[in-house]
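Comment thread on ticket #2218

A.B. wrote:
> Attaching the input chain for the structure job we discussed in standup.
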Amino acid sequence: MTTPREVGESYWRAEERRDVEGVLSHFHTDATFHPVTGPLVGHAQIRTFYDGMGDDFPGLEVTVVREWEAVLIDRAGKRFPINGVNLVRIRDGKFTHVRAYYDPTTFPQPAPR
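C.D. wrote:
> Ran it. Output below, let me know if you need it in another format.
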């Protein structure tokens, strides 16, 4: 797994499983991830994003084209289609930087717990 496509596809499969350890295995320990909420540096900070997403939306289906298309599935089973694009930098088969672009105004509010 060395090309951006291979790393990206493996990453998305781990994210679909909501496998946070699997997702983090795609990031260098000092990697920077840029969701729309602002940069997160290192595994501990990056984990907070994926833990929260998995808690709020335990289901995820992703189709990768030139941009990604995903369906978030909340605890009530409601489906929320979203799309965006990730720009990545790879070193030694792992992400060093990920910048996620999507429209935050279309991002769903999770169902109450």
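A.B. wrote:
> Thanks. Noting for the ticket: The chain is about 30% helix and 40% strand.
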